[in-house]
Amino acid sequence: MYSYMGDVNLTYDKQAISVDCVIFGFDGKSLRVLLKQRQRELPSGEVLVDSKLPGSLISDSEDLTCAAQRVVQTLIGLRNINLRQMEIFSDPQRVQGNELEWINKYYGITLSRVVTMVFFTLVKLDSKLIAYTERREADWVELNDVRHLAFDHNKILIAAIDRLITLFRQEPVAFDFLPRKFTLRHLQNLYEAVYDIAIDNRNFRKKMLSLPYIVPSGESEKEVSHKPAQYYYFDRRKYRQKNNKIFKLGFIY
Amino acid sequence: MYSYMGDVNLTYDKQAISVDCVIFGFDGKSLRVLLKQRQRELPSGEVLVDSKLPGSLISDSEDLTCAAQRVVQTLIGLRNINLRQMEIFSDPQRVQGNELEWINKYYGITLSRVVTMVFFTLVKLDSKLIAYTERREADWVELNDVRHLAFDHNKILIAAIDRLITLFRQEPVAFDFLPRKFTLRHLQNLYEAVYDIAIDNRNFRKKMLSLPYIVPSGESEKEVSHKPAQYYYFDRRKYRQKNNKIFKLGFIY
DNA sequence: ACAAAAGTGTTCCTCTTACACCCATGA
DNA sequence: TCATGGGTGTAAGAGGAACACTTTTGT
């Protein structure tokens, strides 16, 4: 038997699990995150508006991934979004005081602790999607413009950005941020936004054009007041065939 | 207000959170994982012995990380182990039937669902540590020798191995597996075990010796019946100074 | 002297970097 | 014709890959 069994204090009726979603979007120029507005009534009767990451408590019968899907779907109207798990935030004091009261009032229950699992995902922004989310009192905020968030959501967001950078170095997630057909300039803007650096465009194009899974579509931009750029697409099948699980000494740290 | 609020079914008294720990160890030759023996009495009265990943339900007041620390500390006797969060496994059906009964009997409670957060960590194996864990009915099993595990623990282990490989490409975690002073051969064996490949030893040594944070200690092996190898150590400070957050086009996928 | 593992150098080739100008389009 | 962003080539250097033999120690 486990010798530490006696230490475990079991009173599970006051603890809940929630999911929070960090939804990154890219509009061709800059990187944004989706924040939900929150109204909070102070004891004085004054109403404060601030922002939080979108999230929800989970149902008993619900997989956490389903809960996160539900949150995302409700806000941006898309099914089958590719969500990725991040950290769980489980400090017993992470939600307390006014913040805990807000949750209890909001859901009509009495909790003493909320543990939250964070998911994140990447979407392409267009004016239609932006309008859709704004009707739901959610805003796409540029990463540099994010101010104070509810709960420990600033901390969560910082962890998500870190995770995003890591992910970009492991997998071709960039294309989740872009429309199916994109220009190399959009792709470069995205890398520059994520890594926060400048990249030489000749070297960048050379690199991209050497990859067999970045394929010219034959179409070009229209009605732009400069030389129109070609559209490319990402060929997932070619990517899987070629580039899987290679080991190079260069990967050793 | 959240439009999906009505969907959430709130009965939190039958759901628990557990932690499971995937503890990888390296003995200089091969890669192992720590498994806990489990006794299970069948309705027939027969007693089955199988294996599971070490884990525990969590206390109300406990951070998940603390719970995982507790599990690890109890089994291997070391404090302040550097644990890393992995996925959460939250399928409502992941534990049911006999398996669920076993948990309820074991902890003396009545749960209908257990969600588990997985942590993993890396340790160096020596005969002292192996003896310590064996006294606690836990075994260091070679990865290739792992057979059927309790619950969904095979699935969890596979995910952990995948995570381990990814991590090796991102950070110098190798040194968490090795004693403070190690030979280049041990280091190479470790990379070969994790990636499951053969590496040319000349190229490997050249690469390692070019890294400023892999430093010869001046000492050598003793009492070996062949040419004694030099010991090296990993200089964490030098690593942090040099190698942080560089961007190269080669990282683009 | 032999077994066993440590340790060593060179060449080829690929990939990254640095760098500056012309091109196509709409206004 | 001009403003705007698209699109191009080359040379130098760094680093990875392939490859086989000598050295040191204990037995």
Concise overview:
The structure is a homodimer of 253-residue chains. Chain A is α+β, with helices and mostly antiparallel strands.
Give a written overview of the molecule.
The structure is a homodimer of 253-residue chains. In chain A, 30% of the residues lie in helices and 26% in strands. Chain A has two domains: 15-170, Nucleoside Triphosphate Pyrophosphohydrolase, CATH 3.90.79; 174-241, Orthogonal Bundle (Arc Repressor Mutant, subunit A), CATH 1.10.10. The model of chain A is unreliable at 1-12 (pLDDT under 50). In chain A, a hairpin with a 4-residue loop joins strand 1 and strand 2 (31-41). In chain A, the strands form two sheets. In chain A, strands 1, 2, 3, 4, 5, 6 and 7 form a seven-stranded mixed β-sheet that branches. Chain A has a two-stranded antiparallel ribbon with strand order 8-9. In chain A, 30% of the residues are buried. Chain A has 253 residues and is an alpha+beta fold. Chains A and B meet through strand 1, helix 1, strand 5, strand 6 and helix 6 of A and strand 1, helix 1, strand 5, strand 6 and helix 6 of B. Chain A binds a DNA duplex (27 and 27 nucleotides) through residues 183-185, 200-203, 205-207, 210, 221, 223-230, 248-250.
- In the CATH hierarchy, what is the class of the largest domain in chain A? Alpha Beta
Average pLDDT value of chain A? 89
What is the assembly state of the chains in this entry?
homodimer
For the biggest sheet of chain A, the summary is: 7 strands, mixed
Indicate how many domains the architecture of chain A comprises.
Answer: 2
Largest interface between protein chains, with number of residues from each side: A-B, 66 and 66 residues
Q: Indicate the proportion of strand residues of chain A.
A: 25-35%
Written as H for each helix and E for each strand, in order along the chain, the element string of chain A is EEEEHEHEHEHHHEEH
Fraction of residues in helix of chain A: 25-40%
Gross morphology of chain A: elongated
- Assigned CATH architecture of the largest domain in chain A: Alpha-Beta Complex
Distance between the termini of chain A: 41 Å
Compute the number of helices of chain A: 7
CATH fold-level topology of the largest domain in chain A? Nucleoside Triphosphate Pyrophosphohydrolase
Number of strands of chain A: 9
Radius of gyration of CA atoms of chain A, rounded to a whole number: 22 Å
**Sequence stretches where pLDDT stays below 50 over 5 or more residues of chain A:** 1-12
Secondary-structure class of chain A: alpha+beta
CATH superfamily of the largest domain in chain A, by name, is: Nucleoside Triphosphate Pyrophosphohydrolase
